[in-house]
Design goal:
- The complex is a heterodimer of chains A (510) and B (130).
- Helix content of chain A is 28%, strand content 22%.
- With 510 residues, chain A is of the alpha+beta class.
- Chain A has 13 helices and 22 strands.
- Chain B is built from seven helices and no strands.
- Chain B is an all-alpha fold and 130 residues long.
- In chain B, helix 2 packs across helix 3 and helix 5 packs across helix 6.
- The interface between A and B is large, with 37 and 44 residues.
Chain lengths: 510, 130
C-alpha cells in the first residue's frame, strides 16, 4: 500500500511509527529488499522521497516527464573540469521507471575482483547470485529485444557493427509486450516496462509492506549503539514545501537504498563520515557516456522502436560498451548543429537520424558531499586515459555509422567538424587521435553511479561489511550501488537488485 | 533571500528572447514563453541563478557589441549566442548548448513545433495546455 507523506503526517506525528525494517528508497535496491523481507514475514516500511506515478504523469513530452520523475528535473550535475549531467530518477520505483530497461548480470571479472579484494564472496558467492538473477529474470520478464520492436535505429547499429566485424546483440530488457514507443526515458506511457513500481513493489505490498511517498529522510538516529530509526520529513505533493517531521523507529534494521548519491549524504547527515565510518562519499565512480548522430538516406524514425534495443560488448576489455539510444526530437535537437533557420533545416531531417552511444567503465573516482550552502556537491572528472578511451569509442561509432550507410555524421566533439560528410571520415579519425584529452570536448552524461559507501572487511577503509552492515553503526545497512567497490562496465539495475535481494536474504538468515 | 527571489520570480525576458532566437521561427514564440515559465517553476534554485548569470553575459556581450540586448533583432541575438559557441573557453562554449537544450524541449515538445517539422505530435503537452 502506498501512502502520501502529507496524508499520514498528522497521524504519525501524534503517535510515532514503528516497523521491523525501514527501507529508505524504492528503486532497484529498495524494492528488492522490501520484497524479500516482507515475504519473510517482517513488517516493512519503505520511505520514498519522490511521488508515485499517476496515469496523467505518463504523458509523452520530455519536459513534464523529466520535471516529475528526474532528480532536479534532469538538471543535476557533477563538477570537474566541466559540468556533466548526472541522471537519476526520483519517484516511486526510482531510476528503474526512467531508465532504458537494460538488464545485465554482474560480469564475472568484476565479481572476481570484489571477491578477491572486498570479501564479497562471503555473502555474494557466484552460485547465490546466479540463483537470485534467475528469480529476478522471471519476476521482471527479462528477455532479448524481439526483432519486431527493434526499430530502424537498432537494426542499423547491428548492421554497422557487423560490417566492422564487431559482435553485437539485441539487448535483454525488462519489458513485456513492448509497444515500441521509444519513450523509456520518460516513464513507459503504456506501463509495459517492468520497473519496480510494476513488479517487486506490488509484490512486497501483497506481502504486507507499506510505502510512504513524498517522504525524504533527514537522518538516521541510534539508540544503545545501534541504528534505531530515522527522522523523516513529509512534503506537500503539490507545492513540494516541507511538512511535519516524523520519527520512525525500526525494531530490527534500517536499510539505505537511496542511491550512490543520496545514501552517502544521508550517512554524513547522521554523523557517519570519516574515521571509523570509513570513506563515506569517496571513491565515487560511474559510466560517463557520449553519443554520435548519423544521417541516412532512408527513414530511421527513432521514435518507433525500442529506446535501447541493441548493444555491443566487443570492446568491453577496453572498458567500452556501445548501445543504440533513441532520443525524441526535444532532446535530439540539442545535438543538431545550427541555430534558428539552420537548426530548423536540420530538424526537418530528424526522421532520418540515428543515434548510438558509448559508455565507459571509467577509472576516475570522484566524491559526493554536502554543499557549502546546503544541497550537495558531486565532484567528478574523467582522467586523461578515460577521455582517450572515450575518443576511441567515438571513433568506433563513426566508423560503424559509415559502414551502415550513413552519409553524414554529427560527432559532437569539439575539434572535429560539427557536420561531417562520410567522405571526410578518415581525416576526422586522424584528427580525433591527436586531440588533447579534455572531457569538455565531449557532450558527456554520467549514468550508473557506484562506490560511495564501499563494502570491505576493513573498518576505516570501507563503510560497510561484506554483509552490507555499517562498520560504525550496527543495525544500519546500505543495500544500493554505493557499496559496489568498482563500476561494472554494464548497466547496473539487475546487479543492484540482485545484491539487495541477496543481502536481504542474509539479513533474515535465509 | 536570493534563493527566495529566484524561486518566485518569472523567467528573465533575456532568456525567453534567447529561446526564441535559437529555435526555428516555425516553433513560434508563444510556446517558448509558456515553456520558460514552466521551466522556472521546476528548476532548482542554483539552475535559475546560473541562468541569470548566462543572461547577464548575453546582455554584456550584446552591449559591448554596440547595442543593448533589448534593441537587437532575433538575428542579432542569435549571433550573440553563437559567438559564445565559437569561444575558446569551454565554459562559455556551454552557453548555447545549455540554452538550446532547454529551448528545444519547449519548441519540439509543442504540437505546432513538431507538426511544422513533420515530427510525431503529442496531443496534450501539459506545459502549454490550458
Amino acid at each position: 500500500m502506498i501512502h502520501r507523506g502529507a496524508q499520514i503526517a498528522d497521524e504519525w506525528a501524534r503517535g510515532g511509527a514503528i516497523a521491523d525494517v525501514l527501507i529508505v528508497g524504492s528503486g532497484a535496491a529498495g524494492a528488492a529488499a522490501a520484497c524479500v523481507l516482507a515475504e519473510a514475514g517482517l513488517e516493512v516500511l519503505v520511505l520514498e522521497e519522490g511521488a508515485p506515478l499517476r496515469p496523467e504523469d505518463r504523458r509523452r513530452d520530455v519536459f513534464s516527464g523529466f520535471a516529475a520523475r528526474w532528480r532536479d528535473a534532469g538538471m543535476q550535475v557533477a563538477r570537474g573540469r566541466g559540468f556533466t549531467p548526472v541522471l537519476q530518477g526520483v519517484c516511486v520505483g526510482g531510476t528503474t521507471v526512467v531508465n532504458g530497461a537494460i538488464m545485465h548480470r554482474l560480469p564475472g571479472p568484476i565479481h572476481d575482483l570484489w571477491v578477491r579484494e572486498n570479501g564479497a564472496g562471503r555473502c555474494f558467492d557466484a552460485a547465490a547470485l546466479d540463483r537470485v538473477f534467475a528469480i529476478l529474470d522471471a519476476a521482471l520478464d527479462v528477455a532479448p529485444t524481439p526483432p519486431a520492436v527493434a526499430g530502424e535505429n537498432n537494426r542499423l547499429m547491428a548492421a554497422g557493427f557487423s560490417a566492422l566485424g564487431l559482435s553485437s546483440a539485441p539487448i535483454a530488457r525488462n519489458v513485456s509486450d513492448c509497444e515500441a514507443s521509444a519513450r523509456c526515458l520518460q516513464g513507459c506511457p503504456t506501463r509495459r516496462k517492468r520497473s519496480m513500481d510494476e513488479t517487486l513493489l506490488p509484490r512486497a505490498f501483497a506481502a504486507g509492506a507499506r510505502l510512504v511517498a513524498d517522504c525524504p529522510v533527514e537522518r538516521v538516529f541510534a539508540r544503545g549503539g545501534r541504528a534505531a530509526g530515522v527522522i523523516a520529513r513529509t512534503k506537500c505533493p503539490d507545492s513540494g514545501l516541507p511538512g511535519p517531521r516524523l520519527t520512525i523507529s525500526a525494531r530490527r534494521a534500517v536499510i539505505l537504498a537511496a542511491s550512490a548519491i543520496e545514501s552517502p549524504l544521508l550517512l554524513a547527515r547522521s554523523g557517519l563520515r570519516g574515521g571509523a565510518a570509513g570513506p563515506v562519499g569517496r571513491r565515487f565512480q560511474g559510466h560517463p557516456g557520449t553519443a554520435v548522430l548519423a544521417a541516412f538516406d532512408a527513414p530511421v524514425r527513432m521514435w518507433q522502436g525500442a529506446t535501447q534495443g541493441h548493444e555491443s560488448l566487443a570492446l568491453w576489455d577496453e572498458r567500452l560498451k556501445f548501445e543504440a539510444l533513441a532520443l525524441p526530437p526535444e532532446l535530439g535537437a540539442v545535438r543538431m548543429p545550427g541555430l534558428g533557420n539552420a537548426l530548423g533545416a536540420r530538424m526537418r531531417e530528424y526522421g532520418h537520424i540515428a543515434q548510438w552511444a558509448v559508455q565507459l567503465r571509467a577509472e576516475a573516482q570522484g566524491r559526493v558531499h554536502a554543499g557549502l550552502f546546503g544541497g550537495k556537491h558531486i565532484a567528478y572528472d574523467p582522467t586523461d586515459a578515460d577521455v582517450a578511451r572515450l575518443a576511441r569509442g567515438v571513433g568506433v561509432l563513426m566508423r560503424a555509422a559509415a559502414a551502415a550507410g550513413a552519409h553524414t555524421l554529427f560527432p559532437g566533439v569539439y575539434g572535429l567538424p560539427e557536420v561531417l560528410p562520410v567522405a571526410e571520415l578518415p581525416a576526422a579519425l586522424r584528427t580525433l587521435e591527436t586531440l588533447s584529452p579534455d572531457p569538455r570536448r565531449y557532450h558527456c552524461i554520467l549514468a550508473h553511479l557506484f562506490g560511495t559507501a564501499v563494502m570491505g572487511e576493513q573498518p576505516g577503509q570501507s563503510v560497510v561489511s561484506p554483509r552490507l552492515e555499517c562498520h560504525a553503526l550496527p543495525g544500519l545497512f546500505v543495500f544500493d550501488s554505493s557499496v559496489f567497490p568498482t563500476n561494472l562496465g554494464v548497466n547496473p539495475q539487475h546487479t543492484i537488485s540482485a545484491v539487495a535481494w541477496r543481502a536481504a536474504e542474509v539479513l533474515v538468515g535465509a | 533571500m536570493v534563493g527566495r527571489m529566484a524561486r518566485n520570480a518569472l523567467p528573465p525576458k533575456t532568456l525567453i528572447d534567447g529561446f526564441v532566437a535559437i529555435m526555428p521561427p516555425e516553433c513560434g514564440a508563444v510556446p517558448l514563453d509558456a515553456f520558460a515559465r514552466a521551466l522556472w517553476r521546476v528548476a532548482p534554485g542554483r539552475v535559475r541563478l546560473g541562468l541569470y548569470g548566462i543572461c547577464l553575459l548575453l546582455r554584456l556581450r550584446a552591449f559591448l557589441g554596440g547595442a543593448s540586448w533589448g534593441r537587437r533583432t532575433p538575428d542579432e541575438r542569435r549571433a550573440v549566442i553563437a559567438a559564445f559557441g565559437a569561444s575558446r573557453s569551454p565554459l562559455l562554449r556551454e552557453i548555447p548548448v545549455m540554452l538550446k537544450a532547454l529551448a528545444a524541449q519547449g519548441a519540439f515538445g509543442h504540437p505546432a513545433g513538431q507538426a511544422a517539422f513533420g515530427l510525431p505530435v503529442d496531443a496534450t503537452p501539459p506545459f502549454w495546455a490550458p
